[in-house]
Amino acid sequence: MESENHGTKKIFTKTLKSNYVYYIFLALILYGFCSIFDKLILRTVSPLTYIPIVHFFIAINFIILICIFHNGFEGIKHGIKNAGGWIFLVAILVTGYRLSYAQAVSMTYVSLVIPIKRMSAFFATAVGGRVFHEKNLTQRILACVIMLIGAFLVILG
Question: Does the pTM of the predicted model rise above 0.85?
Answer without folding.
Answer: no
